[in-house]
Amino acid sequence: xxxxxxxxxxxxxxxxxxxxxxxxxxxxxxxxxxxxxxxxxxxxxxxxxxxxxxxxxxxxxxxxxxxxxxxxxxxxxxxxxxxxxxxxxxxxxxxxxxxxxxxxxxxxxxxxxxxxxxxxxxxxxxxxxxxxxxxxxxxxxxxxxxxxxxxxxxxxxxxxxxxxxxxxxxxxxxxxxxxxxxxxxxxxxxxxxxxxxxxxxxxxxxxxxxxxxxxxxxxxxxxxxxxxxxxxxxxxxxxxxxxxxxxxxxxxxxxxxxxxxxxxxxxxxxxxxxxxxxxxxxxxxxxxxxxxxxxxxxxxxxxxxxxxxxxxxxxxxxxxxxxxxxxxxxxxxxxxxxxxxxxxxxxxxxxxxxxxxxxxxxxxxxxxxxxxxxxxxxxxxxxxxxxxxxxxxxxxxxxxxxxxxxxxxxxxxxxxxxxxxxxxxxxxxxxxxxxxxxxxxxxxxxxxxxxxxxxxxxxxxxxxxxxxxxxxxxxxxxxxxxxxxxxxxxxxxxxxxxxxxxxxxxxxxxxxxxxxxxxxxxxxxxxxxxxxxxxxxxxxxxxxxxxxxxxxxxxxxxxxxxxx
RNA sequence: CGGGGCGUGGCUCAGUCCGGUUAGAGCGCACGGUUCGGGACCGUGAGGUCGGCGGUUCAAAUCCGCCCGCCCCGACCA
Length: 564
Known about the structure:
Blueprint: H1 21-28, E1 32-36, E2 39-42, H2 44-63, E3 67-68, E4 74-76, H3 77-83, H4 85-89, E5 94-95, E6 101-103, H5 108-118, E7 127-136, E8 151-161, H6 164-184, E9 189-193, E10 203-210, E11 216-220, E12 227-229, E13 250-253, H7 260-267, E14 275-282, E15 286-293, H8 300-307, E16 311-313, H9 316-323, E17 339-343, E18 352-355, E19 361-366, H10 368-371, E20 377-378, E21 397-411, H11 413-417, E22 421-423, E23 429-431, E24 433-440, H12 441-451, E25 453-454, E26 457-458, E27 469-473, H13 479-494, E28 499-502, H14 509-519, E29 523-527, H15 529-533, E30 536-541, E31 547-551, H16 555-563
Parallel strand pairs: 3-7, 15-17, 17-20, 27-28, 27-29
Antiparallel strand pairs: 1-2, 4-6, 5-6, 7-8, 8-24, 9-10, 10-21, 11-12, 11-21, 13-19, 14-15, 14-16, 18-19, 21-24, 22-23, 25-26, 29-30, 30-31
Helix pairs in contact: 1-12, 2-6, 2-12
The structure holds one RNA strand of 78 nucleotides.
């Protein structure tokens, strides 16, 4: 496609509203335009990338027997009331004002409504149906460009099986397909076990791309491949040892000492001698004391999962009301009406110091086995960088990551809610066993840019590049250059290449080079007067910056080699 | 929803504190000319209800109130 007759709105100035690389580059390279918070238009180049990604997805989904469907985004709210997910989604779901309808944030309900009428027998299964469609979610805070939008393109597939073994098989097929899809899209990714959360079901895994711009945090082992979301990750950090001697509880005066670091300094003891106290409210009514070792960080998701409840940090007024002291002087000794839980590292430890529930006082020689009435030890701490891997002992890395895919074994939750039954071999009525498997299409594009860019712009992998070749005619007012460029353009497209041709005659060479680097096609073919006078053109590899001068007659050979 | 920031030509911003010619700059755009291998230059020109509504005032981009929108941090995130 030619620049002069196309819509390729690049911009050199930094967009003020974008902060992360992929967002900045998608705007500058003219892939997207914002319309409202979390809502983007996809312009020609951006759409081409999305289409490349979708094509890869389709090929791999079809390869595991998936069948593409196209489902309504507009759903009767009644359908969602049947599964109780109107409440589950709450404000996340968009509601239509002048009809009892909602905009679908996902499509389990619609799939079931179809399946219940047509999958009546075990002989009708297994089935895999997938869609690549816009989903709507009223995110409280859209952010990071296309990474968290209110309207986004998602590949969702749904497996329907008549047995649990069948579900395992469908799930494994998807896991395999996902690895191929993300690899083909040129992404470096890893897979983590995840909790199935409100989707319910028996198992789930997330496909993650490491990125400073990611919203998730994962612990990954560089040696054995252990990887887990910090919401579930564990490390091999040892529990606290018991020390000899039976020392009595003693109150110590600690004026104005509130933080663990201040205590370490004031008492001149290691942080591992301190039991940090955090206070939460469970379901808004039960006060919870959480004890952690020294400066171990509490992971609130782990706490919520351990308690099986909603939790929130206690407000300062509540802390005083329930404990009689302020944050910084709290501890397990003498605390009444609290549910007390502790991190596993504290199990049966002794010789510890914690707050006295009296401002400016702490208590020493606390023995968890002797002095503390505990409601349980749980894994509550967040894994930190460089802690030993549970699998192999290697130092763990803790990284931010973008979730690009998530696969769930749903089981029978939706089928039961929507009365989606079939008859098994014995003629018994059973709920269909489902799985659901999502991929964020925009997230693949943004992740790819996050992983593949430099200070000049995007560096596309050939597999999803909007064009393979960026052809530059340097001085298009020079008749020789114009003619040669046009000929090369025709030659390349005649040979099946996707070419973007900068045929503008009103910008300078430097301007074109900058645009080419920004747009990031894998190969740049540069046609200028000097090389042309020797019958040559220049080919630049965007990723390496490496240039070579080749004879015009040899272009096709050279390009073929460089692209594969 | 809490905290912070911002809203002035297509883009990036100045001007707002301390009200007062005809609201500016750079980039982009149009026309003419010179350039032509790393975001060229000269000249001419078009383009703005200063986010919206209301108020104060002789006078509002500027002060006050309400509202809307966008970005960032947090909460939230099947």
